[in-house]
Amino acid sequence: MGNWLVPWHQDTALPLEERRDAPGWGPWSVKSGITYAHAPARALARVVALRLHLDDSRSDNGPLRVIPGTHRLRVLTDADIDEVVQRTSPVRVSKAQSL
To answer: For every residue of the chain, which 3-state class applies, written as one string?
Structure first.
């Protein structure tokens, strides 16, 4: 299985049961038949995210990297993310750490 580089980002798109246009939501997309919208910060603050690794996650195959504390920040611009990355050390989440 191959892997690819994913730049630093915040996951702001949420899967939704259906599209309901509302202020702050969007842009919208459909992936594999599931409707997604980028959510406003007020909605993201109420979300609990869980990630489950089914494959081995090693340093050579692109483990999840997390910048600690960023879940407490607002939705960041790309420039804001670059600034946070420069002053904070990422944490690699491996299979052993996540179990």
So the answer is: CCCCCCCCCCCCEEEECCCCCCCCCCCEEEECCEEEEECCHHHHCCCCCCCCCCCCCCCCCCCEEECCCHHHCCCCCHHHHHHHHHHCCCEEECHHHHC
